[in-house]
Design brief:
D-Maltodextrin-Binding Protein, domain 2, mainly alpha, 154 residues, periplasm, transport, 0% strand, 44% helix, globular, 8 helices
Length: 154
């Protein structure tokens, strides 16, 4: 989070922003999933979270908080990609079945379910999600109302 804020706001401004949040710091948390409800209750003003988990909680629980991506002075929203990797061990005991599972998971039909099932996005250029969840992801990235209407950090 520090590197992202420093990239968006500048080195000192990122540190200064985090300094303003220090008074609202609750210390280490067992899970980022425990932070969203604290934001919803007003116990925290902002929390770092997994976007997929936060958007699912907002949708399922109608949680009273928003996902936002910080924007710089130019208005461009920025985030850090933390990709998931899928691979097969060189000496996998069931190499053929492992290969079949990988092929299945990266197939177009499965990749098209990512937004709806887990608020995820596919890295495949030939997969375009059209579900309400995909629209919510797009809104969050653009700074839409339910998923975050701020033009920068709160």
């Amino acid at each position: 989070m520090l590197l992202l804020l420093q990239h968006v706001m500048g080195e000192q401004q990122g540190l200064d922003y985090l300094g303003t949040l220090q008074a609202n710091n609750m210390g280490p948390s067992a899970s980022t999933g425990k932070l969203g409800p604290k934001v919803a209750k007003g116990e925290l003003s902002v929390a770092n979270s997994d976007v997929l988990m936060a958007m699912a909680a907002i949708s399922a629980d109608q949680a009273a908080y928003e996902v936002f991506f910080p924007a710089g002075a130019d208005g461009v929203r920025t985030t850090v990609a933390l990709p998931y990797f899928l691979g097969q061990a060189a000496s996998a005991p069931h190499a053929a079945n492992a290969g079949k599972l990988i092929d299945f998971l990266v197939s177009v039909p499965v990749q098209q379910t990512l937004a709806e099932q887990v608020y995820g996005t596919s890295p495949r250029a030939d997969v375009t999600a059209t579900s309400p969840q995909a629209a919510a992801i797009t809104k969050a990235l653009e700074g839409g109302a339910r998923s975050g209407s701020r033009t920068g950090p709160p």
